[in-house]
Structures are given as structure tokens and as C-alpha cells.
Amino acid sequence: MSVNERALAGRRAIVTGASAGIGEAIARALAAAGASVVINARRADRLAAVAEQIASRGGRVACVSGDAGDDSVVAAMLDTCRAEFGGQADLVIVNAGRGLRGSVYDSDPSQWEAVFRVNVLAAAKLMRAASERMIGVATPQVGAPPAAKPPEVPGDWPATARDIMVLGSTVGRNLSPFSSMYGSAKAAVHMLAESLRRTCGPRGVRVTTIEPGIVASEFQSVAGYDPVSFGAFMKSIDPVLTPEDVARVVLLVASQPAGVHLNEVMMRPTRQEYP
Ligand SMILES: NC(=O)c1ccc[n+]([C@@H]2O[C@H](COP(=O)([O-])OP(=O)(O)OC[C@H]3O[C@@H](n4cnc5c(N)ncnc54)[C@H](OP(=O)(O)O)[C@@H]3O)[C@@H](O)[C@H]2O)c1
User: Fold this and answer.
1) Before 145, cis peptide (omega within 30)?
2) CA 137/CA 204 separation, integer angstroms
3) pLDDT exceeds 70 at position 141
4) Mutate to test the pocket of ligand 1, among 189, 217, 267 (most ligand atoms within 8 A of CB)
5) Which string of b and e fits 134-156 if b means at least 16 CB within 10 Å?
6) Using alpha carbons only, how large is the chain's radius of gyration in Å?
7) Using a CB cutoff of 8 Å and minimum separation of 24, what contacts does 192-195 make?
8) Which is the closest atom of ligand 1 to the Cα of 217?
9) pLDDT score of 1
């Protein structure tokens, strides 16, 4: 058994956007490493096929199909984890997202709401709901003053790690010549994650941003990049990252001892200079 397998056996995970690309690779890797995994995406047939493959290799998996921005889907993911795997999720991968070609000037404004809804609002909803359940407190009062006493950690701390990992992007840190409108959504989710880290870290929950550069997936066609010019750019920095490369990093972060937190991981293809 590898280090990762020992560290992840018994963990209960949720992965959004697991019907393709990075989320699918993360779900497969977590299940192979011994975690039980709830997977989500809108395409129910694709999700079921991923689940079937995971199960055929002995993995424990359950599906919740639907839009990750719907409140009912957020609740269903957390409830399904508890019902199917016997406890609250302790490893939540906020991955569902999509790109958009262009800047505020030349991107398609009819796509703006969808981009911010999935990359920012859906992410924030799951981050909030998952952290509430991990910390085990009732919904905090809006605008409540900071508590006077030190935050409580779960009774099994530090035997058990709890993680919320959010897929950010290099283009949320650096201005992208390809997709600055999308990048501004990722910049927002980086801030949300850092804010949640400051709340949750003292309570024993790690909140990490994973910030990849170019990863070959369905992302490029969904974003609307020109296959010829963007394909040539990808070729020029060959090899670009694979979803499995990102999954390996997720396992690395999750398998650290509970008292060790990799806050932010930026990863690029070695030959990608920018963004
Ligand atoms: N590829 C890259 O170069 C790159 C770089 C940095 C960061 N990222 C980020 O990494 C994450 C995964 O991207 P990817 O490369 O794996 O893209 P992908 O291959 O297009 O996969 C995106 C996944 O998200 C799901 N999804 C999209 N909208 C959803 C929604 N509203 N509700 C639920 N699921 C939804 C899609 O499934 P359905 O269509 O079935 O819903 C799919 O499973 C995204 O957050 C992306 O922004 C990607």
C-alpha cells in the first residue's frame, strides 16, 4: 500500500464536475486510494459511466447529478455522503467550472452569468455548506462579532484531516491574454478560499486552492478557444498538464498529516511561461 492509500482509506469525499477532465481524474484517484466518493456533474449519463468504472475496480462511489449551483444539489451531495458512507464528508473538491474566451471587452456577455454562477457562486455555496458540516456549528449569524473564546476543533483532531480544495487557476493570479473575464472569476474564488481558510484553519479544517496552468480537457472547447491558434499555443509548450497530474497533487495535499496544510498549489506545464 502506498503512502497515499494509507492516508486516504476511510476518507469520505465529494467531487463536483466529475463527469470529465480534472474532476473525473480526481474522483478516480481518490477512489483508487481508498476514499469513498460522491460525484456530481450535470450530464447524468456521463456521471453514471464514471461511477460504473470506479465501482468495477472496487471503489465506493455514489452519484448526485445536477447543477452544482443549485441549493438542492449542494445539500444532496452532503446528505448522500452521510447516508451512503456513514458520516459527513471530510474531503470536498470544489472543481465544477468552465472557461470563457476573451476579456471584458471581447468575451461573449451572454455567457457571463453562467461563468460566474458556476465558478464563483456554486463554489461559494458548497464551501459554506461543507465547512458548516465539517466544523459542526449551526449557520453563523450574518455579521456576528468574532467569538471571544478560541475556536473549537473536532473531538478527533488531529487524528483526522478535513479538507476543502478549490480549483483556482494561474489566470486568477496573472492576467491572461486568452481569458481575463474567466480569470476574474477565478481571482474571486481564490479570495473566497483564503477567507474560508482563515475561518476554518483554526478549527482544524484545511482550505486549499489548486491553481493549474494549461490542462488538456474539455475545458478548451467549452471556453470557446480557437482550436487552431490555441492548439498551436498548447503544442508550443508541449507537454501540457493532464487531469491525472492535477489529481496527483490533490492526493498529495490530502495525504499530509492533519497539522500540515499546503495552502495554495500553483502548477504549470514546465514550458508554460505565462500566465
Ligand atoms: N483545463 C484547464 O486548463 C484548467 C486550468 C485551470 C483551472 N481549471 C479549472 O479546473 C476545473 C475543471 O476543469 P476541467 O479542465 O476538468 O474542465 P472540463 O473537462 O470541461 O470539465 C468540467 C466539469 O465540470 C462540470 N460542470 C460544468 N458546469 C457544471 C455545473 N454547473 N454543475 C455541475 N458540474 C458542472 C462538467 O460536467 P457537466 O457538463 O456534465 O456538468 C465537467 O465534468 C474548473 O474549475 C476549471 O476552471 C482548468
Assistant:
1) no
2) 13
3) no
4) 217
5) bbeeeeeeeeeeeeeeeeeebee
6) 18
7) 192/120, 192/123, 192/124, 192/127, 192/166, 193/127, 193/164, 193/166, 193/168, 194/263
8) 19
9) 44
Sheet holding 162-167, edge to edge: 60-65, 36-41, 12-16, 91-94, 162-167, 205-212, 264-267
Q: Go through the domains of the chain in sequence order and give each one's CATH number.
A: 3-136+157-267 (3.40.50.720)
CA distance 76 to 101: 32
Contact 271, 253 (CB under 8 A): no
> With 80 as the cut, is the pLDDT of residue 150 above it?
no
- Indicate which atom in ligand 1 lies nearest the CA of residue 68: 32
Grid cell listed for 74: 449542494
Cα(22) to ligand 1 centroid in Å equals 7
Distance CA 69, CA 71 (A): 6
Tell me which DSSP letter residue 215 carries: B
Is the Cβ atom of 98 under 6 angstroms away from ligand 1?
yes
pLDDT in tens, 52-90: 999 999 999 999 999 999 999 999 999 999 999 999 999
Cell of 216: 488538456
